[in-house]
Design goal:
The complex is a heterodimer of chains A (201) and B (251). By secondary structure, chain A is an alpha/beta fold. Chain A has a single domain, classed as 3-Layer(aba) Sandwich (Rossmann fold), CATH 3.40.50.880. Chain A has 5 helices and 14 strands. In chain A, the strands form 3 sheets. An 8-stranded mixed beta sheet of chain A has the order 2-1-3-4-14-13-12-9. In chain A, strands 6-5-7-11 form a 4-stranded mixed beta sheet, covered by helices on one side. A two-stranded antiparallel sheet of chain A has the order 8-10. The longest helix of chain A has 12 residues. Chain A is globular, with a radius of gyration of 15 Å. The N and C termini of chain A lie close together (12 Å). Chain B has a single domain, classed as TIM Barrel (Alpha-Beta Barrel), CATH 3.20.20. Chain B has an 8-stranded parallel beta barrel with strand order 1-4-5-6-7-10-11-12, surrounded by 7 helices. In chain B, α1 packs parallel to α2. Chain B is globular, with a radius of gyration of 16 Å. Chain B starts with a strand and ends in a 7-residue tail after the last helix. The chains are: A alpha/beta (201), B alpha/beta (251). Chains A and B meet through α1, β8, β10 and α5 of A and α3 and α5 of B.
Chain lengths: 201, 251
């Protein structure tokens, strides 16, 4: 397999550069995807996300990405807000429909002190997820104020101020991580290697 | 939750410099080389502040920033001479994860905080506060401690939180570069006042100073410059020491 990872580029807010660099450090080839028809040229997709839920959905719609993402059968990895918009609905700046690829809601973290949650924190792997192989109890970098509320597809949880939240999800070809693997030192590079090697013996 | 240990690079392009309480600069090295060194030592983040461009009213020098970003797989904050949402956008595109703003927000247009937070998310907007003590209050300064603003630090800290800043980088004009310890009272009052993460900076002269400010003020992170630049301690030394003193830090 050629293993080209497509990074979906939408809107003006992008941390695309960091993600591209980390995937390349993991040995992957990347293609920045500006138009949905480029989905044909890649083997896997990464959906980044910076900003708010409502803006991200609006930008995806403006660029014509919503239907192609809903119909996509390739492995897809949502990162941070990119994972959150995989959900059914989000409640950041009002109620907004998400891509609906994961049955979940996005709600503010029920924590009174110090939101956003910023910094390295450990993940506790609770269900099988190939992306997390070799990364049990590793530390990853988090930077978020909202979390995924989901009970079916949880791969790992993380605890912040006594609040346990979902830090990684998986449902068939759909993967999501609340943390930033591209900002998580060698552990993050390893996660991208796992993503590149998905389905290979 | 772990306390973040952040390496701070004060830049006078193309060098990392060390201001001695914000005046007098000493050249310390190349930004991308030092950033890489601190990353490899285990820094949780790197913050890059161009400390002269705002004062000289120059534009941001992007090449140096991009070269530095390319060495890092940890969060990278960038500031100095940021004057528009377009500057934020350009910096994110060349590899910044957070943008640090001070002078323009304090002296000209605080709405830039609201606008940037709405577009890029709160977590991406860091407000740098340079505090100078006057009797029983602190005043906000800009341009590396050179220009007074008339704004009260505590009022401004609350205001930037309300406007949507995701983090405060707190510096002390009085303590910076003197290596005699942090302005503990300043750190504590700002941390206690706001509900967003506060990174404290200015004054670390020893491992003990870092421990003291963490225990007393409970900041979300500590930004270190001189101790690292003079090779007095490595990030690893700092983390080992804190761990031994029962302060949680990342690996």
């Amino acid at each position: 397999m050629s293993n080209i990872i497509g990074i979906v580029n939408y809107g003006i807010a992008g941390n695309i550069h960091s993600i591209k660099k980390a995937i390349e450090a993991a040995g992957g080839k990347t293609l920045i995807i500006n138009k949905p028809k480029q989905f044909n040229e890649v083997d896997r997709l990464v959906l980044p996300g910076v900003g708010s839920f409502i803006d991200a959905m609006q930008e995806l719609e403006n660029d014509g990405f919503i239907e192609p993402l809903k119909n996509n059968k390739k492995p897809i990895l949502g990162i941070c807000l990119g994972m959150q918009i995989l959900a059914t609905v989000g409640f950041e700046y009002g109620e907004t429909k998400g891509l609906g690829l994961i049955k979940a809601e996005i709600r503010p973290m029920p924590v009174s002190a110090n939101v956003p949650h910023v910094g390295f924190n450990t993940i506790d792997v609770v269900n099988d997820n190939e992306l997390l192989y070799g990364l049990e109890n590793e530390e990853f970098y988090f930077m978020h104020s909202y979390t995924v509320i989901n009970f079916h597809d949880v791969s790992s949880t993380t605890t912040y101020h006594n609040h346990q939240f979902v830090s990684a999800i998986k449902n068939s070809n759909i993967y999501g991580v609340q943390f930033h693997p591209e900002k998580s030192r060698s552990a993050g590079i390893k996660l991208f290697q796992n993503f590149i090697n998905l389905g290979e013996a | 939750m772990t306390v973040r240990i952040i390496a701070k690079l004060d830049i006078k392009p193309p060098y990392v410099v060390k201001p001695v309480h914000f005046e007098g600069l000493r050249k310390m090295g190349d930004p991308s080389e030092l950033a890489k060194k601190y990353y490899e030592q285990g820094a949780d983040e790197v913050v890059y502040i161009d400390i002269v461009s705002s004062l000289y009213q120059r534009n941001i020098i992007f090449d140096e920033i991009e070269r530095t970003a390319n060495e890092l797989f940890i969060p990278f904050g960038v500031g100095g001479a940021v004057r528009s949402v377009d500057d934020f956008s350009k910096l994110f595109h060349i590899g910044a994860d957070k943008v640090v703003i001070n002078t323009y927000a304090v002296q000209e247009n605080p709405d830039i905080i609201n606008n940037a937070a709405k577009i890029f998310g709160n977590q991406a907007v860091v407000v740098n506060i340079e505090a100078k003590k006057w009797g029983d209050y602190w005043e906000c300064y800009t341009d590396c401690g050179r220009i007074q603003s008339g704004k009260n630090v505590l009022e401004w800290a609350k205001e930037v939180e309300d406007r949507g800043a995701g983090e405060i980088l707190l510096q002390s004009v009085d303590s910076d570069g003197r290596n005699r310890g942090f302005d503990l009272e300043l750190c504590k009052q700002v941390v206690d006042l706001v509900n967003i993460p506060v990174v404290v900076s200015s004054g670390a002269g020893s491992l003990e100073d870092i421990k003291k400010v963490i225990e007393y003020a409970k900041p979300s992170g500590v930004a270190i410059a001189s101790l690292l630049h003079y090779d007095k301690n490595t990030i690893k030394d700092i983390k080992d020491y804190l761990r031994k003193n029962n302060i949680e830090v990342s690996k």
